[in-house]
Write a structure and sequence with these properties.
The chain has 588 residues and is mostly helical. Helix content is 62%, strand content 0%. The N terminus is likely disordered.
Length: 588
């Protein structure tokens, strides 16, 4: 009879085979002590021998038995090591790559943020320059088909232009009588400092939520399936009312998002015009909170791409709002009767140097906020890339993704571009960035009307002493001048939009030549990459230390959750398929 152990006939639970297998592997391995040999040993005189520790045969079965005459480390050896050691870490030279990457992050982040800033500006100018022309062409064709009784229908792209223009007009018509900037400004100004802190954070969260849901609503409204229903002759079904439902939802979204942006703008105006540094300091500290929320977390390059898109949109929106604040302050100061030479009471946040220079007085708080935002972005991206061992070359890949979208949405690359289910090709890059151009355009129109009201109020106040005939002649002349200036400004913006569009397409086309090489070089930033600035011995030491700490015997048995496949490998999202609002562990 063969010898049979008593426990061989005991029932085996699920997973016990793996445990016995791991134990067998553990006994078969050559367990080596965890040593990091980057420091060469310091020669120390041997200590007198002492009794060795007891040898446990069952614990280290495959390890060699220690020698009986091996000396131990005594107190005298420790003191001699501390006082006479002259060794240094030979891997310190490898840390220079971390320092060089850290110092090159500001240039890399400003390069892609500057490119994204121009993309946002191009998309913003599209609403005021190209869209009106496309709207007029679509209306002209619609009237021509109606008068000539033609059976041809408008193409979906022109229907999208009409709907987009009507969406802006209806939103402005709804919000113009409901938004009094003066009342909102003073209501925010009367709040306590802690309430303003809550207002800043709440508005930032609401802005991101509105941008996310609004992008889906606009895509539904501008899709081919929605636009083709408008002119199709067929039986009355529920699909006929779909465009009206989507237009109502889009109008509601644009109104809500514009209100959120308006409150953000006026809160920023309150902080800039504060008579002490408390509110401006609160605004700056709120920006530095981003470092705490982002730096001490694990990131991959897909998460970093979403953060970069969010920073681009935030930089452009903040710059536009600060420009509006500075413009409103310029109107208020130029229309007042204060004597700048004699001095008057001004907000302390307008700067420490007060004098006749009005431009410096207005631009100082604006430049302070912009500089703090740039510093926060530099520190945030520098420490994220440092802690997660991501090289600055990954920002070149981000630029390639934006250039690919830009070239695909243009007339040059539309033949080879992949087909989209939506018609409007203008916000293709804006969709990737998560940039809401329509609410921002509605906000600019509202602020323009209110600023025009401020200018006219100052003008009416200065014309009270004139006669009726003189006032009529002056007003007609002033109206003609305003119209001429408006047309001149629109032509300038149109020329700027055309120049920006042509240069962006040329830049995106030129970058296509080296995209494959940059994709191949970006393998160093993939998941499972080697740490930066660590030698082979240090990496081996860290791996052994991780194996010792993450012992499988300390883990509880895994239980599959509902609708969770055990052992299924999750493939990471490619950068080309990633947008700002794609869920990859977190939305930025």
């Amino acid at each position: 009879m063969s010898d049979v152990c008593p426990h061989d006939h005991s029932p085996v639970e699920p997973g016990d085979h793996d445990i016995h297998g791991k134990r067998a592997e553990l006994h078969g391995l050559d367990v080596r002590p965890l040593t990091y040999t980057s420091l060469p040993p310091t020669p120390i005189l041997p200590s007198p021998p002492s009794s060795p520790p007891p040898w446990d045969r069952n614990t280290f079965q495959g390890s060699p038995r220690p020698r009986m005459n091996e000396p131990l480390f005594s107190l005298w050896d420790y003191l001699r090591e501390e006082l006479l050691a002259t060794d240094f870490d030979s891997h310190q030279e490898l840390k220079w790559e971390r320092v060089s990457n850290f110092l090159s992050i500001p240039f890399a982040i400003e390069k892609i943020v500057g490119f994204g800033f121009i993309l946002c500006l191009d998309s913003f100018l599209y609403t005021f320059t190209i869209l009106p022309i496309r709207f007029l062409l679509a209306v002209f064709r619609l009237l021509f088909n109606a008068l000539s009784l033609s059976k041809s229908h408008l193409p979906p792209s022109q229907k999208a232009d009409i709907l987009r223009s009507l969406l802006i007009v209806v939103s402005v018509t709804i919000l113009l009588p409901l938004t009094d900037a003066s009342k909102i400004y003073h209501s925010i100004r009367g709040q306590d400092t802690i309430k303003l802190y809550v207002i800043f954070n709440s508005l930032e969260i609401a802005d991101r939520l509105c941008a996310s849901i609004g992008q889906d609503i606009l895509d539904c409204m501008f899709s081919r399936s929605t636009l083709e229903v408008i002119s199709r002759k067929g039986p009355v079904t529920s699909h006929i009312f779909r465009p009206f439902v989507y237009f109502t939802l889009a109008t509601l979204y644009v109104a809500c998002h514009t209100l959120v942006m308006l409150y953000q703008l006026l809160s920023l105006n309150v902080a800039v015009n504060s008579y002490d540094h408390a509110l401006l300091t609160l605004l700056l500290s709120n920006q530095f909170v981003e470092i705490k929320g982002c730096v001490f977390k694990k990131f991959e390059k897909d998460n970093l791409f979403q953060i970069t898109c969010a920073d681009i949109v935030e930089r452009f929106t903040l710059s536009l709002m600060l420009f509006v604040v500075a413009f409103r302050n310029l109107i208020e100061l130029s229309g007042s009767e204060f004597d700048f030479a004699g001095g008057f009471v001004m907000p302390k946040s307008f700067g420490w140097f007060r004098g006749n220079n009005v431009i410096w007085t207005i631009s100082y708080p604006v430049l302070t906020v912009i500089a703090s935002e740039m510093l926060v972005d530099w520190l945030k991206h520098a420490f994220i890339t440092k802690f997660n061992h991501i090289r600055p070359s990954v920002y070149e890949r981000y630029t390639d993704v934006l250039c690919r979208d830009l070239a695909s949405g243009s007339a040059v690359g539309r033949l080879t571009a992949r087909k989209h289910c939506y018609v409007d090709q203008s916000p293709l890059v804006a969709r990737r960035l998560g940039f809401a151009s329509i609410p921002l355009a509605v906000l600019a129109i509202l602020i323009g009307f209110q600023s025009l009201g401020l200018v006219l109020s100052h003008r009416v106040h200065s014309e009270r002493t004139l006669g009726l005939d003189q006032i009529l002649a002056v007003e007609v002349t002033y109206l003609v001048k305003c119209l001429v200036m408006a047309v001149a400004f629109w032509l300038c913006f149109l020329a700027l939009k055309v120049l920006l569009g042509v240069n962006l397409i040329c830049y995106a086309t030129r970058r296509r030549a080296g995209m494959e090489a940059r994709v191949a070089a970006d393998v160093v930033n993939d998941f499972g990459r080697d740490p930066i600035g660590e030698g082979k011995e240090e990496r081996e030491y860290n791996k052994q230390l991780k194996k010792m700490v993450d012992d499988w015997r300390d883990d509880a048995a895994r239980v599959g959750e509902m609708s969770e496949e055990s052992g299924a490998s999750k493939k990471r999202v490619a950068l080309e398929d990633l947008t700002r609002f794609t869920m990859v562990k977190r939305i930025w």
